[in-house]
Amino acid sequence: MRAAFKLLRGIWHVLVGWVTIYFRFPQLSQQQRDARVQVWAMQLLRIWGIDLEVRGQPVVSGPALLVCNHISWLDILVIHATRHCRFVSKSELREWPVLGTLATGGGTLYIQRAQRKDAMRMVKDMAQALRNGDVLGVFPEGTTGDGIGMLPFHANLIQSAIEADAPIQPMALQFVDSASGQISMAARYIDDDTLLASVWSTLNAQGLKAIVNFGQMQTAQDRDRRAWAQDLHQEVLSLKNKCFAA
User: Fold this and answer.
1) What residues contact residue 137 under an 8 Å CB cut-off, 6+ apart?
2) If you average pLDDT over every residue of the chain, what do you get?
3) How many CB atoms lie within 10 A of CB 233?
4) Is residue 68 within 8 Å of 173, Cβ to Cβ?
5) What is the pTM of this model?
6) Selected residue with higher pLDDT from 117 and 97
7) Cβ(161)–Cβ(130) below 8 Å
8) Distance between CA 33 and CA 20 in Å, rounded?
9) What is the pLDDT of residues 116-156, one digit of tens each?
10) If you compute the radius of gyration of the chain from its CA atoms, what whole number of angstroms results?
11) Mean pLDDT throughout 37-65?
12) In the predicted model, is pLDDT for residue 79 greater than 80?
């Protein structure tokens, strides 16, 4: 019953967000929109009983590219609650009912993953957004993992920071059990997991905490995208492991 109540409250909150984006956002400045998205994300985490702990200092203003590990559908919500940014996501999301409107209202950039040429177009769009002073967020693993290890980083999207001469801030997130401090699998979304099953597992979890650990800003320093991606992978992995440190 408790999980069902959380789900209903969450659905209502999502619908309120949809209405706000559809009717209110056209009258707001970009800064006001970003602030609304961050507050909305924080409220949804509270509704669903998910604690949030932020370590380190998120970038104050752009241009900047945030690079993070990927565990769950919940990651974007958690990151928005800590620091609003424009995410890069698969183009199919734009067509999803309600969620597509929320993603677009949050400033999402869309990529057609099945088309290699579209990746080149996305890099150029990201570079231009960075030149305009935006803060972007990417998951270089390309898919979700189990929260224990990390998949290799794809270097393509890192090229945008090189082209725009913009810094990158590595960051890591982890879901843990508040009582034990150990990894929680409640929010995982991998392999054969369905979105509905993952959401239900999350809502049934007691004492679920999301820890977000921000690292230091860094520049390319003559590294190409592959070398930089490898270094970022090691840094994000280190930040993720530090999520368990007091």
Assistant:
1) 65, 66, 67, 68, 76, 79, 85, 86, 87, 88
2) 87
3) 20
4) yes
5) 0.89
6) 117
7) yes
8) 10
9) 676 788 888 889 999 999 999 999 988 887 778 889 998 98
10) 17
11) 93
12) yes
Express each pLDDT in 155-200 by its tens digit.
988 999 999 999 999 999 999 998 888 888 888 887 777 888 888 8
Quote the CA–CA distance of 100 and 97 in Å, as a whole number: 6
| List of long-range contacts for 8-12, beta carbons under 8 Å, 24+ apart | 9/47, 10/44, 10/47, 10/48, 10/203
Domains and CATH numbers, the chain: 2-244 (3.40.1130.10)
Q: State the burial class of residue 110 (Cβ atoms within 10 Å of its Cβ: 0-12, 13-18, 19+).
A: buried
DSSP 26: G
CA distances for 74 relative to 48, 70, 119, 146, 166, angstroms:
11, 9, 24, 13, 27
CA–CA gap between residue 148 and residue 146 (Å, rounded): 5
> What count of other Cβ atoms lies within 10 Å of the Cβ of residue 81?
23
Token code pair at residue 243 = 């999520």
CB atoms inside a 10 Å sphere around CB 97 = 7
How far apart (Å, rounded) are the C-alpha atoms in residues 76 and 120?
23
> Residue 73 to residues 1, 77, 202: CA-CA distances in angstroms?
23, 8, 11
Helix (H, G, I), strand (E, B) or coil at 109: strand
